[in-house]
Design brief:
binds flavin-adenine dinucleotide; globular; 12 helices; 19% strand; eight-stranded mixed beta sheet; three-stranded antiparallel beta sheet; Alpha-Beta Plaits
Length: 398
């Protein structure tokens, strides 16, 4: 049977099935929520079942490594790079080193319309487009195929993305390559490209101008209080701390994530990637000398290949080892999926037919109502409990 997604929590939209189909009869189409799922043209299908066999969720590959995982707090010594990066700028340090070895780096980049796509970069002066987190699911497109061609030709490839994208890459390749280095992220979950598009429309509508630049992790008010930034063609700007920006509130409140993110199969210590990159939240408590509120990375090495590349950039970065067993304390997203809020379905039902702001306001009202209802229930319970206590006391006294 060709691939058929019956349970959306079991498809990450990684593009492995589309990439592997020899007849090109699978396309990744958007559902009503704006997430990609495979669509099969049955009349072209030759029933080779490669799409099902290579699906990393249906048939996960074994990971067999002897390497003992280690983790570090890390900072890129170049201040400009760190300012332009989300965390401590470790991605850029490794990527630059790979390009200097004539390698190619794959990562998430904005397209002209500010949708997010994974693409290859082979020059240091173009690396900036992969720098910085884009909190939207990025479209893999034909990146796995291009990476395979480069790998087969003997070129060094550094492929970066969410853990499910790295899982998809290895499923598609079906083997490891000495010239392949991979990095995944500690991933909160990926928001819907449709919600992102509606948010972009809303921002442009407010200032009546096109977007020039976006940063999800502007550090003007510090790395801990990171902000969403938009620069527009008419020179106007928008800057809001993450807990004041409506898109970031939907993202961090888990209202607009892909269904598979609430039960992520990649939240395990057995990682496909050689390196995991993340924010070192809580660094101010554990290593105050590595904290200046400009961004500190957490890096986790899962293979000797990852170790080798980190060694190659050791002059460019500050590193301090941190016990691997402790990292969950400050970054629960490493192994734990977020919970699906009750209001998620309500949010998506509305956004399918409304603009971003109307949907967001309706969601806010709904959340306020729910918390008010919960508060009333709690108060009633308390009052009932006090009444019973008074009755008992009266009985004892009598
Ligand atoms: C959707 C998402 C959720 C995340 N959740 C967490 C979290 O809960 N906790 C945590 O500690 N860190 C999280 N991160 C990682 C964090 O935001 C930084 O990306 C990471 O620490 C690397 O920072 P850096 O300074 O080394 O490099 P940066 O230059 O900031 O990051 C660049 C790297 O991020 C990748 N990237 C950017 N956007 C995307 C995307 N949409 N999809 C795939 N890859 C992308 C690029 O390909 C490149 O590899 C998340 C990242 C993303 C994209």
């Amino acid at each position: 049977m060709p691939i058929k997604i019956q349970d959306k929590t079991k498809c990450t939209g990684c593009f492995a099935c589309e990439s592997v189909c020899p007849k090109k009869c699978i396309t990744m189409g958007e559902d009503a929520e704006g997430f990609w799922y495979p669509l099969v043209e049955y009349d072209k299908c030759i029933h080779c079942e490669l799409c099902t066999k290579k699906c990393p969720i249906l048939n996960p590959r074994e990971i067999d490594r002897k390497y003992e995982t280690v983790s570090f707090a890390a900072i890129n010594k170049d201040e400009k790079t760190r300012a332009d990066s989300s965390s401590g700028g470790l991605f850029f340090a490794i990527a630059k080193s790979v390009i200097n070895e004539k390698g190619v780096v794959f990562g998430a980049s904005f397209s002209d319309d500010f949708s997010v796509q994974t693409k290859p970069v082979d020059a240091v002066d173009k690396l900036f487009c992969l720098q910085g987190s884009k909190y939207v699911q990025s479209k893999i497109g034909n990146s796995y195929k291009i990476a395979k061609m480069l790998l087969d030709a003997g070129q060094i490839v550094f492929f970066t993305g969410t853990p499910c994208q790295i899982g998809g890459l290895y499923a598609y390749l079906d083997k490891d390559y000495d010239n392949l280095l991979t990095a995944d992220l500690i991933c909160h979950g990926v928001p819907s490209p449709l919600v992102w598009k509606k948010y972009l429309d809303y921002r442009q509508m407010v200032v009546k101008s096109d977007i020039l630049k976006i940063s999800f992790r502007q550090k003007k008010y510090g790395w801990n209080k990171f902000s969403m930034y938009f620069g527009f063609q008419n020179d106007s700007e928008y800057l809001a701390e993450h807990d004041d920006d409506p898109f970031m509130k939907c993202f961090l409140g888990n209202y607009c994530l892909r269904p598979s993110c609430y039960d992520c199969k990649y939240k395990t210590e057995k990682r496909y990637a050689d390196i995991t990159l993340a924010d070192f939240w809580g660094i101010e408590s554990v290593y105050p000398e590595m904290f200046d509120d400009k961004g500190t990375s957490l890096i986790i090495l899962h293979s000797s290949k990852g170790q080798k590349w980190i060694d190659s950039v050791s002059e460019k970065i500050r590193l301090r080892e941190y016990p691997y067993k402790e990292i969950q304390k400050y970054n629960s997203a490493y192994l734990k999926s977020v919970d699906e809020p009750k209001e998620r379905q309500y949010f998506f039902k509305n956004i399918e037919k409304q603009d971003f702001l109307t949907t967001y306001n309706a969601l806010q009202k709904r959340i306020e109502k729910t918390s008010l209802r919960l508060q009333i229930r709690k108060d009633l319970k308390k009052r009932r409990y006090r009444r019973v206590l008074r009755k008992i006391k009266k009985l004892v006294v009598d």
